[in-house]
Amino acid sequence: MTSSESTPIVKLDSVTVSMNGKTVLDDINLVIGPGVHTGIIGPNGGGKTTLLKVILGLIPPDRGTVQLFGHLNPGETSPKGMVGYVPQKCVVDPRFPVSVFDVVMMGRYGPLGLFRRPGKKDRDVAMENLQKVEMEKFADRPIGHLSGGEQQKVFIARALCSSPQLLILDEPTTGVDVQSQDQFYRLINQLKIELGLTVIMVSHDVGMITSYIDDLVCINQRVFIHGKSPDVLSEKILQETYGCEVEMIFHGHFPHRVIDQHNPEETE
């Protein structure tokens, strides 16, 4: 094994983050190796999005260290374009006159740098990535005229335009119907294999993502467990993570939903 193969893509040591006097992340230790598809689950307000922003270098920790591709202080020292990020579903105004192709082209501005205009190569890269997510036929359509699932595919194409090694997605299927969710997860897994990506995905679809991920992180301010999904998904561990009594509704070998017994109308 070479040194580059043994270097973790993401490494957090004793990371603590507080906001407005409240601890959001508490003594987080996490290592994610190259080529791994990691799912992150936990209750609302448990620190999942904050964890992603710490990895991206958007939020500095109060204590502890963060390494990305072996570099300390991600966002300052990591090479440009090595991370693709798809945030939680963006609200798109259907009246906003921007095409699907133009949205994907935005993903080329980072590698280009300031004051450089995109050329033919950049347009070719944008179209190639639209083809990867099977959205090339919508290139000229306004982004606001697409369904939620179609828009998320476009945002993935935009994230791929920098040829990243790490793809980070924050609850990418929120508001997407179940059939489209399954297609979406299949697409991510296909891209991971074809492009050799490391993938980190926050999701509330506990049962569905376990069919596609390599390992699972259960987080609620701290990491309760990080391991292979069959080992992680037990009622005891999920109760500890969600901080309440839960009911697991199984779909196949894995729970399809996790229901808070104190708040039965709220899932995940």
Compact description:
The chain is an alpha/beta fold. The protein is built from ten helices and twelve strands.
What attributes characterize this protein structure?
268 residues, alpha/beta, six-stranded mixed sheet, four-stranded antiparallel sheet, 10 helices, globular, disordered C terminus
Describe, in plain words, how this protein is organized in 3D.
By secondary structure, the chain is α/β, with parallel strands linked by helices. It is built from 10 helices and 12 strands. A 6-stranded mixed sheet has the order 6-7-8-3-9-10, sandwiched between helices. Helix 7 links the parallel strand 7 and strand 8 (198-202). The protein starts with a helix and ends in an 8-residue tail after the last strand. The model is unreliable at 245-268 (pLDDT under 50).
Strand order of the largest sheet: 6-7-8-3-9-10
Strand content of the residues, in percent? 25-35%
Shape: globular
Main sheet attributes: strand count, strand direction, barrel closure:
6 strands, mixed
Please mark out the parts with pLDDT under 50 across 5 or more consecutive residues, or reply none: 245-268
Share of helix among residues?
A: 25-40%
Number of helices: 10
